[in-house]
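Quiz preparation item.
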């Protein structure tokens, strides 16, 4: 097996898992799916720079062959953007859960098994 085949297989598995999770009905699974999909994109960007082994990433006069630093810079930028996007999506999901009482993507509390009243109302005191 070649390195290219392993990287292509890993990208395929990450994309498949990301799409599967992104199409789920709960917000946390959707966020995980988007994160997996972004990992696949990062791996694709890194692999687009032609995978080379035992070559320095920076050019110098003594080195005849070197790795392309542009895909590495793109991946580092994509990691930062993905972190910000994931944090924003988690905050939106948390806010949606706190306002609707459901973590369903469409906000329907009946399917999730939660009560219609959220947050729970205080127990009524028995009158005697």
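Solution:
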């Amino acid at each position: 097996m070649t390195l290219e085949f392993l990287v292509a297989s890993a990208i395929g598995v990450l994309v498949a898992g990301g799409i599967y999770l992104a199409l789920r009905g709960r917000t946390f699974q959707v966020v995980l799916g988007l994160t997996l999909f972004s990992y696949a994109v990062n791996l694709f960007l890194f692999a687009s720079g032609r995978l080379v082994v035992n070559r320095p990433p920076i050019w110098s006069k003594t080195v005849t062959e070197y790795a392309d630093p542009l895909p590495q810079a793109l991946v580092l930028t994509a990691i930062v953007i993905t972190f910000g996007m994931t944090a924003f999506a988690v905050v939106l999901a948390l806010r949606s859960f706190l306002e609707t009482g459901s973590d369903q993507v469409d906000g329907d509390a009946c399917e999730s098994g939660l009560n219609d009243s959220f947050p729970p109302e205080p127990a009524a005191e028995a009158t005697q």
